[in-house]
Amino acid sequence: MAGVVSYRDVFQVREFRAMWLAELQSVAGDQLARVALSVLVFADTGSAALTGLTYALTFVPSLLGGLFLTGLADRFPRRDLILWIDGLRGCLILLVAIPAMPFWSLCVLVGIVSLLQPVFKSAQVALLPDVLGEERFSTGMAIRSITIQSAQMAGFAGGGLLIAVSSPHIVLLLDALTFFGSALLIRLRLRHRPAADRAPVEPGERRTEGSAWALLFADPGMRALTLMLWLMALVAVYEGMAAPYAALFGGGSVAVGLILAADPLGSVIGAFLFSKFVPEDRRPGLLGPLSIAAAAPVAICLFRPNLVISIVLFVIAGAFGTIVVMQTTTSMTLRLPDARRGRAIGMSNSGLTTATGVSPLFAGVLSDKTNAATAIGWFGLAGTAAAVLLAFIWHRANRGESSSRVQTVA
């Protein structure tokens, strides 16, 4: 077995258990909401482009949050930020759940929720090394990936079933309750820690986001890690196109939920196998081939496989894609200084979520001109080509870093 630190070792940390359980229920609620919004908008408009736009609004505003707000995760106590953001998002989703909410109001509210996501995410991931210590961090990230994807799978699949027997508005109400439950857990179980960046700001000085971008693109290795992370969001375009893709084969809300559940199902399998059976020192070197393996199955959609085969392809893509996201995030986080970690992680995650939202928006426009399978397939083909290029860049950078470490030891 690969890891010295077991899953049990990580779960013995009381604070990690609280963070894990809080995120688990919050993520499940989010996926319920995404199914509800996709079904609601597509049923009302019949437009793949508007469905892609609505799904994009759950991600794209994260770019602004990542650019202008993630520095808060370094300047303020991270536990407090997590708590208050969860409470605020719960209140906003309660408003979204109101029946007959005008479409423009729904877009604004969902956009604000998305705007806050990178601040929450950067505070949470930046806090994990403090909670777990560096020796447990890699295993903790693997557990987090497995459980998050399990929650997504349950939320996506359950969302389709819940909407079939109730309504999208009830599902949105459940999403709001998960945010409040998450905030309560953080309040009761996580201890207060001071802000990581406590350096005073001199008169006339302001902290810019340029330093965060500089950290992410500081060297070829960090650049390759960042771009591979973002690429995984682009090739997962099938999530945002689930409703029109299911409709292409005559499927309804249950089929939408199954398509959306395929990616997290693959993610759980991939994260578990990778974390249990691949030695830690070999993981970075596999990032290039894994990126290609994540994009290639999506390109097969150009041949318009049936719904069952498509779901299998999405499971495979999700397995490899999540491994890449997990390993790139782990490698990047451990390379970053603590005082700037929250801002840099927030910037990288804002790029990830923005790419996740932009891809179905453009794929929706292309789908209206062709069909959902063709649009998704073209994204997969382009992603495969980009993955080959990034694999080459990462191989050179990682080989150079390994050689430098060997020379230093010698």
Condensed summary:
The chain is mainly α and 410 residues long.
Walk me through what this model shows:
The structure is a single chain. With 410 residues, this protein is mostly helical. The protein contains 17 helices and no strands. It has helices at 7-11, 14-45, 48-56, 62-68, 72-75, 78-96, 103-132, 134-165, 168-189, 210-216, 220-235, 242-248, 253-277, 287-299, 307-335, 338-369, 372-409. Helix 2 (14-45) runs antiparallel to helix 3 (48-56), helix 4 (62-68) packs antiparallel against helix 16 and helix 11 packs parallel to helix 14. The longest helix has 38 residues, at 372-409. It is globular. It starts with 6 loop residues before the first helix and ends with a helix. Residues 201-206 and 406-410 have low confidence and may be disordered.
Q: Count every helix, treating DSSP H or I runs of 4 or more residues as helices.
A: 17
Categorize the overall geometry. Answer: globular
Q: Based on helices, strands and strand pairing, what is the structural class?
A: mainly alpha
Largest sheet: none
Low-confidence stretches: 201-206, 406-410
Provide the residue-averaged pLDDT: 82
H/E element order: HHHHHHHHHHHHHHHHH
C-alpha termini separation = 29 Å
Radius of gyration: 20 Å
Oligomer state equals single chain
State which percent range the strand residues make up. under 5%
Helix content: over 70%
Q: Tally of extended strands?
A: 0
